[in-house]
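Re: the request from the purification team.
They wanted to know what the chain is likely to look like in 3D before they choose a buffer screen. I agreed to run a prediction and write the result into the notebook, where they can find it.
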Amino acid sequence: MAKLSDKYILIQCELRPTFDFQQEILSHGDEVEVLAPEHYDNVLS
């Protein structure tokens, strides 16, 4: 995890995305932006 500013942090991890993981990301609404992989951002939109 890297702190980019007082407002942003960058988290990088390798995992097998599951339904529960997707729901956790979605539960944060507009507070989260998926940077990569690009196709995964489309899945969560």
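For the purification team: Residues 2 and 38 are 20 Å apart (CA to CA).
Please add any questions underneath this entry.
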